[in-house]
Amino acid sequence: MNEPHGTRVLTRSSLAEDLRRIGLARGDAVMAHAAFSRVGTVLGGPDALVDAVLDAVGPDGTLLSYQDWELGADVWDEDGRVPAALRDHVPPYDPATARPARDHGVLAAVIGTRIGVRRSGNPGAAVAALGARAEAFTADHPLDFGYGEGSPFARLAAAGGRVLMVGAPLDTMTILHHAEHLADLPGKRRVRIEYPLATPHGTRWRLVEEYDTARPVVPGPPEDYFARIAEDYLATGAGSRGPVGGAPSVLVDAAGVVAFAVAWLEGRYGR
After folding, report:
1. Which phi and psi (to 5°) does residue 162 adopt?
2. How far is Cα 129 from Cα 65, in angstroms, rounded to an integer?
3. What are the tens digits of pLDDT across the range 184-231?
């Protein structure tokens, strides 16, 4: 479809066809990351891309999105605590109303605000999901080490899920934080962060422990090492590449890229 001035107009159905062409299939559970501005002119905007993914995976499939949590300000001190002067003003994290961090892009915002979305209970590692297994992927997300065992990331890998990058930089492939958790590496950096959590009985404060996801989990790797892992994995012939609209895109198996990343990390930075 073309506008009078020649710009190609992408549609929900054309995007779904592109997704099927790179291997997304009915019944898939897929965690999607997107740089939507790279897709092109889309009739219906980012909602059309969300719907295209849901069309491709069908009624038995599930779409997941890494959300984090939008507070609008960094309120923690060097010890991960909220100073007393701000403590009463920090809204508690409520999975029913929380918004994704703005720097995760418009696709995460659209998924996170859809009717019927399920969002996990870990503020910093929050995942939203739509579809058949949304509740199963997001329920009972551990507060400590929220990228590890029992997390939506671990469940996605165990369920034979996929990871989709629609124009998104490969160093934003969040499931690789799960690989950091699993890898046997000396000196992993840990952080502790205090969160207010909404409960039926009011706000409950909780100090959460996590491996540091703001930088490489151990000294040594370059800042963009997630991209290097992903590129090395694709170079083995695993996964697939292709355009979704105008966005160069990648689809990989979650378990495969996690296992490759664990071996990659341990081989270079292990004991």
Report:
1. -125, 165
2. 6
3. 999 999 999 999 999 999 999 999 999 999 999 999 999 999 999 999
